[in-house]
Amino acid sequence: MQYVAGNRLTLLKNGAQYFPALVEAIDAARAEVFLESYLYADDETGELVTDALARAAARGVNVHLLVDGFGASDFSRRFRDRLHAAGAHLLVFRPEFARRRWRRARLRRMHRKLAALDAKVAFVGGINVIDDFESREWQAPRYDYAVRVEGPLAYEVRSAAARLWLLVSWAALRRRSRADSALQPAPICGTQRAALVVRDSLRHRRDIEDAYLRHIEAARVEIVIACAYFLPGRAFRRALYAAAQRGVRVRLLLQGRVEYFFLHYATLGLYGRLLDAGVEIYEYTQSFLHAKVAVFDRRAACVGSSNIDPFSLLLAREANVFVDDTGFAAELHDSLEEAMRSGAERLPPRQWQRQPLWRRAWSWLAYGLARFLISRFGFERYH
């Protein structure tokens, strides 16, 4: 992990802050736009972003949109036609052809959510192109984060996006639109240090997990992790146990609503050991938690697309930004603190022992099945 200095970073919370900033940056682009999203919904947000991409392409900007073949399998035909008419380029990562065939390769998804504009501005985070409110009955929007990057690191984000675009275009046997080779790294425009860390199945298989582990092992005061889907492997769990045992306050903000039944109850199977080790668990219940962020000793922080589960850490293509800046870390810490205070419930240390027998049985069964499936897919060391 190589930190890059001279950046200006802006923390963006939820789509209400992210999408206006993204559209503004697309409208300001003059040479090229790369946008990657796992989900791309046919809703007001999808319309907003598609219109911005089409406007950019119509004025001569080289627009590249990459969506995942599973997450965006229902990508809107009208969006496709609009982008094509404007001259934008669209690719699908691993299109779903044989949906009934269960192979590990089908789980290798493009889960990144990033954008790169003119190699000067970039966005990295966990926010898909989808409305914040899945239901108008929600009292709060889907809880998520992204970071806006200005400065030299934006060029690294652009390079990562261009590499994946080239790879997918070769795999799809499509004509390869040329990225602008004349673009240069943005000049220094701030004082913040940050690093782009990606996960793929080639040279960067464990980079995100290793970065997390290094920060956990280096923490001396406090660790705060917010994660939508939390099913860490053995090494990650042991690092959290060790941190709590050496006196570090470890707090986890996890999903309180049942979104995916199996994963939810498999995660509950870890609660007892975590609570016994002194880890604090907060369940977010105000809406669906979708964040994948962390703060270490209020000095370093992480914002990205990677969950702490076997799919993100062992199979999917992910992208996180790790930040070495006390100001940014403090801002994210305060935001998470507010979420834990106003939108979450803390589990008492002995909460697990007082759970109904049926709930404990479901969690043990789900966790046991999760371990079996992880081993079945060849990841024995993970569980």
CATH class membership of the largest domain: Alpha Beta
By oligomeric state, this entry counts as: single chain
Amount of helix: 25-40%
**Helix-strand topology string:** EHEHEHEEEEHEHEHEHEEEHEHEH
Main β-sheet, spatial strand arrangement? 4-3-2-5-6-7-1-8-14-13-12-9-10-11-15
Q: Which band does the percent of strand residues land in?
A: 15-25%
The name of the CATH topology of the largest domain is Endonuclease, Chain A
How does the helix and strand content classify structurally? alpha+beta
Number of helices: 10
Per DSSP E runs of 2 or more residues, the count of β-strands stands at 15
| Main sheet summary | 15 strands, mixed
Q: Termini, distance in Å?
A: 25 Å
**How many domains, as an integer?**
2
Radius of gyration: 20 Å
CATH architecture of the largest domain: 2-Layer Sandwich
The overall average pLDDT, rounded, is 89
How does the overall form come out from the CA principal axes? globular
Flag low-confidence runs.
none
Secondary-structure map with pairings?
Blueprint: E1 4-13, H1 14-28, E2 32-37, H2 44-58, E3 62-68, H3 77-86, E4 89-93, E5 113-117, E6 121-125, E7 145-150, H4 152-171, E8 192-199, H5 207-218, E9 222-227, H6 234-245, E10 249-255, H7 261-276, E11 280-284, E12 292-296, E13 300-304, H8 310-314, E14 318-324, H9 326-342, E15 344-346, H10 357-376
Parallel strand pairs: 2-3, 3-4, 9-10, 10-11
Antiparallel strand pairs: 1-7, 1-8, 2-5, 5-6, 6-7, 8-14, 9-12, 11-15, 12-13, 13-14
Helix pairs in contact: 1-2, 2-3, 5-6, 7-10
